[in-house]
Structures are given as C-alpha cells and as structure tokens.
Write a structure and sequence with these properties.
Elements: E1 2-4, H1 13-29, E2 36-40, H2 47-55, E3 58-64, H3 69-75, H4 85-94, E4 100-107, H5 115-124, E5 132-137, H6 146-149, H7 155-171, E6 196-197, E7 202-204, E8 216-219, H8 228-235, H9 242-245, H10 250-253, H11 259-262, H12 281-294
Parallel strand pairs: 1-2, 2-3, 3-4, 4-5
Antiparallel strand pairs: 6-7, 7-8
Length: about 300
C-alpha cells in the first residue's frame, strides 16, 4: 500500500503516474495486490485528475477542510493569499461519485464554534451525501506559532467537544465514524515494513518528521540503515507501557501516536498523550446507537 502525501502531492502528478505504473508492474509480476490513497488539500483534485488517479489504483482521497470559507481560506490559502474553499468544494461536487472522499476537519478553539455553519454550507453546496467527515483534534507543534498552539484543546476538553460535534453529524445524517475504527496493527512508523520517503529521497520512520534530519534513517537509492533513531522507533511497544495495558481503550488507540513520545518536541512532549476516547466512550456508544437506528 502506498499513501501519497506532502506538502501537496498533486503538484507532482507526473511522478505519481510514473511511479504508480512501476508499482503496478512489480505487483502484477509478483501476483500481489497494489492499492493507494492520497492526502491532499483538494485544490487540484479535478474530475480529470480523479480519473487518472483511479487508473493508478488510488481509490479515494482524504481532503482537509478546516471550517467555513472565512476560516479555511485564512489558514489554508494559496501561496499568493487566494482563497481555496470554493474550488475544493466544486471539485468534490463534480468528480466521479465512486471516488471516495473523506473530509478531515482539524478542530481547535478558534474554529469549534464555526462547525455548524460549516455543515450548513456543505449541505447547501450539495455534497452532504458525497462525503464522510472525520473530526480531528488540532495538534500542537514546536515549530508552530503560539497562536496556533494556544488554540489546541487538551484530550479531556476535546473529548467533550468531539461528542457534541459528532452528534451534529449523526443528527444531520452526514457520514462519519462515531468511534474511529480500531487499528488492525500499530502505526506503520513502528513497523519494519513501514517507511516514509521525503521529496529528496531521504527515508524516515514517520511522515510527520520528514525534514527533521536527525530522524533520517537512510535514502531511497541506498540500503536502509538501521541507525539509532530507527531502532528507537522499532523498539517501541505499547505493551511495555503499564498505563496503556490497563486502559480500556487500548484496542482503539494502541497507545496513540508514537511520535508524541519518541520525537523531542518541547510543545508536544508536554501534552497528555492519551486519546480523547479515553474520556467519552459511554457518550459515544449512545450516539453510535442513534446512528445505527437512523439508518436501519
């Protein structure tokens, strides 16, 4: 499985097409299956591009929309400052309905109150039944400005926010996973078979640390070196963590994001590493029951 990501992967479509053809040839010879997904801002995800991506065994995309136009276009504008929201929504509306679209919405203190208006706009624009929405917790980063980091909810507070927002989705009959699907395995960053490739061919255990040269474990054109940094990732095991082993939501989060523990980040390392699911499962089960009854 390949996940195309960036930056913005659709800026390198020729590379995606060329590599995909090579991957499909290799897997065909080995009689194995090849499939791919893509994480994109959606601005260049035109119907024509979708048609070509499907030929590359890309069966769906995760598109980031962080709120209504007045918010999204402020935090996710083009390099020249131009808006992106309307074009992204138009792309979704016009593309092949069999191409799966998951909308990822990062929620923080700055945009949580805008969520109902955001849903109103998606309904008005006619894509309500075309999408699944994933509500994500805005994450702090050492390299982000204090304004962004100050907008981050604690897991405890976000657990309450998530309940309210996901119930809005269910009440409006907009597709969502009320309780995120449990992981079949732990994060690929701590798997021997998982690797992330940077734009310059450098290799990393996790795509969120690309560009952090201290986390580089080799190059795509050379033999992968199991440097100290790589051993640190591969040796991490949630079942060595007593708190996690005694937690009722372990099967859902599998210890959470390894990067929060393994990568030095003075902002991130200060946060509670636990999933918000630790604090709201009873409420979410009630909402899940409501969702089930609404589609029977």
């Amino acid at each position: 499985k390949i996940t195309w990501f960036g930056g913005e992967p659709l800026l390198a479509l020729d590379t995606i097409y060329r590599l995909s053809n090579s991957f499909m040839e290799i897997t065909e010879k080995k009689k194995s299956r090849y499939y791919a997904t893509i994480l994109t801002n959606g601005y260049l995800l035109t119907p024509e591009v979708v048609t070509n991506l499907k030929k590359c065994n890309v069966d769906g995309a995760q598109v980031t929309l962080d709120g209504p136009p007045e918010y999204h276009d402020r935090v996710r504008c083009l390099k020249n400052g131009e808006a992106t929201f309307d074009r992204i929504v138009d792309n979704i509306k016009e593309m092949d309905p069999n191409f799966m679209i998951s909308i990822s919405t990062n929620i923080g203190k700055d945009n949580v109150e805008l969520f109902p208006n955001f849903l109103d706009i998606l309904e008005e624009r006619g894509i309500k039944n075309r999408i699944v929405i994933s509500i994500e917790q805005l994450q702090p980063r050492e390299y982000l400005c204090s304004q962004v980091n100050n907008a981050v909810f604690s897991p405890e507070d976000f657990s309450e926010v998530y309940v309210k927002l996901v119930e809005m989705l269910v009440d409006r009959r907009i597709g969502t996973n009320v309780i995120p699907k449990s992981y079949e395995s732990q994060c690929a960053s701590i798997s021997k078979m998982g690797i992330s490739v940077g734009p310059d061919g450098s290799l990393y255990r996790c795509w969120d640390v690309i560009g952090n040269h201290s986390e580089c474990v080799g190059r795509i054109d050379q033999k992968v070196k199991l440097l100290d940094g790589s051993y640190r990732w591969l040796a991490w095991d949630v079942f060595n963590n007593e708190e996690c082993c005694n937690c009722k939501v372990l099967p859902l989060c599998m210890g959470g994001c390894p990067r929060k523990i393994l990568v030095k980040d003075n902002i991130l390392n200060q946060q509670n590493h636990c999933s918000y699911l630790k604090y709201n499962i009873p409420e979410l089960l009630k909402i899940l029951y409501k969702q089930y009854n609404s589609i029977k």
